[in-house]
Amino acid sequence: MYRVVISPSANADLFNALKYIAYELENQQAAAKLADGIEKCYTDLEDFPGAHELCRDPVPPPQTPQILFVPFVIFVAYPTTH
Q1: Span 2-29, mean pLDDT?
Q2: Is it the case that residue 18 has pLDDT exceeding 60?
């Protein structure tokens, strides 16, 4: 099993995007749909990291599984330790 690590800045960006869509654009349904889609990406990346494109950027380390979820790039999956 893998876990997705979400940086504080990425979490803040997502929160602000969802808040903007829900309250500034007054579209709670679209915000909820985006949140559900991103949550599904997190789950997919945790469960099947080998099924996704590998990152080509130097940060995070190259060859890290990622999912492109416009306008976000969701990555890094690390093995969990027990």
Answers
A1: 89
A2: yes
Burial 20-51 (b: 16+ CB within 10 A, else e): ebbeeeeeeeebeebbeebeebbebbbeebee
Averaged pLDDT score across all residues of the chain: 77
Report the candidate in 72, 66, 68, 73 with the shortest Cα–Cα distance to residue 45.
66
* Interacting residues of 53 by C-beta distance below 8 A, sequence separation 6+: 65, 66, 67, 68
Q: Is the dihedral of CA 10, 15, 16, 18 positive or negative?
A: positive
Characterise 51 by phi-psi region: left (phi > 0), alpha (psi -120 to 50), beta (else): alpha
